[in-house]
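ligand=zinc ion
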Amino acid sequence: MLGDARIGTPASRAQLERAHDAAYLEQLASLHSVTWLDPDTVAGPTSWEAARLAAGCAIEAVDSGGFALVRPPGHHALPERAMGFCLLGNVAVAARHAQDALGCERVAIVDWDVHHGNGTEAIFRGDDSVLVVSLHEWPFYPGTGGPGTSDETTLNIPLPAGAGDDEYLAAFTELVEPAVAAFDPHLVLVAAGFDAHADDPLAHMQVTERGFEELARRSAQLGPRCAAVLEGGYNLETLPRLVEAAIRGFDSA
Ligand SMILES: [Zn+2]
């Protein structure tokens, strides 16, 4: 389905230290046995390489304007620990790379994974060079991102269970597009999770394939350049065509 896909290269320790504590990276690098890092997140001796590859692909997506199709996902990873299937903040590492290596001073992150991107928020909270937007089911895991948690450069959009294309696209029109336009980013980085799909087993939203295509199209229109990184999406029957729909959307912007 993805004829022009290619394999990326791992992120360097220096690239990862832009978003994570050195001591935590050392812990990941030195895992010698299977270890539960939090109640949802298991890792072992090969996880360091997998996580560095995921972050490295996110960096390459920023360089090329592409879509990093990676696991493990990243948006729950905190500066100092793993959380919610996430080891490294792939999008956060990529955003810092865009700032430090590509001169993209202002980066807008738009996260439409069904869960709140609490790790990304924790990494950039109080940093006025990165706007972090998250649309998510609420109340729901991880429990953060509820009403009243937005600030100058944090926009949390909690949506009730059962929301679908209409609610997501209305939130884009009323909240996301004005906020990102006012921020005037040099790069839009999409944390593209597909677990808000109607058939996803982990959540309770009703977004359709067509809805993801439109979310992607409208995300790519938010700035002069755009890249995307895969986050969640747990129905392996539907995930390939949802990714394909998003790529159609990004390409048609
Ligand atoms: Zn998710």
